[in-house]
């Protein structure tokens, strides 16, 4: 595999994040939190803000009940997507990629600490890093398919 060239022109802001694509009042972050909670996520009734749930972080095997402790991770980081061709995409396509709810593995709720420690490593680099450190891989927990809920089906408190 040829090494990647230098990263030029990438800025995270070039990928508009956390939009409300289906106009149900919930942005992408909240949609992922709702979909991935192992129990029914509790949502503020005055707006789509997830306030509690039960999440499993596949990066470190920890569970969380406070959504503030979670990041929504792009399994293929935005910077890696940029290096792999997103630099030539228009804003609409980068926004669609950054908010992809149609592919369940694209966005995952994970512990903020683990997500930030991995930085912009692509999935293959993360596996090599983990195995190189002698750590055993954390087995991802099976979860239901994430899909669009019918309009108005937001689980409020």
Any overview of this molecule?
There is one protein chain. With 157 residues, the protein is an alpha+beta fold. It has one domain. It contains five helices and six strands; from the N terminus they run αβββββααβαα. It has a two-stranded antiparallel sheet. Strands 3-4 form a two-stranded antiparallel ribbon. The C terminus is likely disordered.
How many distinct helices?
5
Helix content: 25-40%
Order of helices and strands: HEEEEEHHEHH
Distance between the termini: 50 Å
For the biggest β-sheet, the strand order reads 1-2
As a whole number of angstroms, the C-alpha radius of gyration is 16 Å
Strand content: 5-15%
Q: How many domains make up the 3D coordinates?
A: 1
Structural class designation: alpha+beta
Number of strands: 6
Mean residue pLDDT: 82
Gist?
This protein is an alpha+beta fold and 157 residues long. It contains five helices and six strands.
What attributes does this structure have?
13% strand, 6 strands, two-stranded antiparallel ribbon, 157 residues, two-stranded antiparallel sheet
